[in-house]
Design goal:
CATH superfamily of the domain at 168-310: TruD, insertion domain
Function: Responsible for synthesis of pseudouridine from uracil-13 in transfer RNAs.
CATH architecture of the domain at 168-310: 2-Layer Sandwich
Helix content: 25-40%
Distance between the termini: 36 Å
Mean pLDDT: 90
Order of helices and strands: EEHEEEEHEHHEEHEHEEEEH
InterPro entries: PsdUridine_synth_cat_dom_sf (IPR020103), PsdUridine_synth_TruD (IPR001656), PsdUridine_synth_TruD_CS (IPR020119), PsdUridine_synth_TruD_insert (IPR011760), TruD_catalytic (IPR042214), TruD_insert_sf (IPR043165), TruD_pseudoU_synthase (IPR050170)
Number of strands: 14
Shape: globular
Low-confidence stretches: 351-359
Catalytic activity: uridine(13) in tRNA = pseudouridine(13) in tRNA
Active site: 88 (nucleophile)
Family: Belongs to the pseudouridine synthase TruD family.
């Protein structure tokens, strides 16, 4: 029986889009305030309705901790609390929560949780649900690891390329658990079904394996020079409308890919995802075969397609005595670490971080 590649997430093993541009190195998250995230909602609250949208700033806390505090202090069930996505613990983040409007008077109790501030609130007819966000604005301080100055010009050169060509849409370390070993547990689950865990954890472990396979597919496309173009049989997506189609004539479609109007999508294997055809399907098969997997192993999951790249907008670099403040906007589901690893030319994260909910 052949020896399989290690089923462990290793960000350092993936190719860069900008390998010829030197990075700035440095470190992030020296303090939570060094990593700032502002959630951009998909819509604004209407000002009336049975639910209260509350914008909360938190420092050094998980989103889960805030939800539990709301539950306990307001004396309501978790099912009544809405949130669009999870935000990192080791950061200063601002995000929206929703609660039934009849509990508005109890919000004064939030003063008992250190590191939390209510910034604004407004009513809306419906509860806030997972995924109801447009994206996130980031402002991140990269500090020098050795006390030397960091090059703003290096950072700007890399960000210009990412703005033009897009950012490789890798899943970040948050998706894979401590040591990056969750895909291995997911592998054991789909191959043997012998992992003793609650259903929600099994779902998360298989999702982690799906994410690793997507990253491998993306890395393969980069290595083959197929990042910013489509090939026959690709399931491509239109960036403006989100519409998907199977590429029949790659030569005719690639000018649109060059203009960043369309991009290839990669597989999150499952029972209902749209399958690629021809040469594009062969590349997806190659990733599965590396781990002796088949599409049928993911019958318990719905499946989906994920863009190979995402746009980088609203970016800027500010040079200060502390280091480089790098800012940018990312659409929902995109990881800031995918941008930072290109700028820094190394895995920017260490340890376990909170993953963002996408499903």
């Amino acid at each position: 029986m052949p020896v399989l590649p290690k089923l462990r997430f290793d960000f350092d093993a993936y190719p860069y889009l900008t390998p010829d541009l030197p990075g700035v190195d440095g470190v992030i998250r020296h303090r939570p305030q060094d990593f700032q995230v502002d959630e951009v909602p998909a819509y604004s609250p209407l000002g009336s309705g049975e639910h209260l949208f509350v914008r909360i700033e938190k420092v050094g806390l998980t989103t889960r901790a805030v939800v539990e505090f709301l539950r306990d202090r307001l004396q309501i069930s978790e099912a009544q609390i809405g949130v669009a996505g999870l935000k990192d613990k080791h950061a200063l983040t601002r995000q929206w929560f929703s609660i039934p409007a009849r509990y508005e008077a109890r919000l004064e109790g939030l003063a008992g949780l250190e590191g939390v501030r209510v910034l604004e609130q407004a009513r809306h007819p419906h509860k806030l649900k997972v995924g109801h966000l447009r994206g996130n604005r980031f402002r991140i301080l990269i500090r020098s690891g050795d006390g030397a100055g960091l090059s703003r010009f290096r950072a700007e050169a890399i960000l210009r390329v990412l703005e033009h060509q897009g950012v490789p849409n890798y899943y970040g370390p948050q998706r894979f658990g401590i040591g990056g070993l969750n895909p291995l547990k997911g592998y054991e689950l789909v191959k043997q079904g012998k992992v003793h865990a609650p259903s929600w954890l099994k779902k998360f472990l298989v999702s982690s394996l799906q994410s690793l396979l997507f990253n491998d597919w993306l890395a393969l496309r980069l290595q083959m020079g197929l990042f910013g173009q489509v090939i026959e049989g690709d399931v491509a997506k239109k960036h403006d409308t989100g519409g998907e189609f199977v590429v029949q004539d790659a030569e005719a479609e690639n000018p649109r890919a060059l203009r960043f109007e369309i991009s290839a999508t990669g597989p999150l294997y499952g029972k209902k995802y749209r399958e690629a055809q021809g040469p594009a399907r062969a590349l997806e098969d190659q990733v599965l075969q590396k781990y002796e997997l088949e599409r049928g192993h993911f019958a318990s999951r719905r499946g989906d397609r994920r863009l190979i790249r995402f746009p980088l907008t609203e970016w800027g670099v500010e040079e200060t005595a502390e280091g480089l403040w790098v800012s940018f906007f990312l659409p929902k589901g995109a990881y800031a670490t995918a941008v930072l690893r290109e700028v820094m030319k190394r895995n920017p994260e260490e340890g376990e971080l909170e993953a963002e909910m996408e499903e």
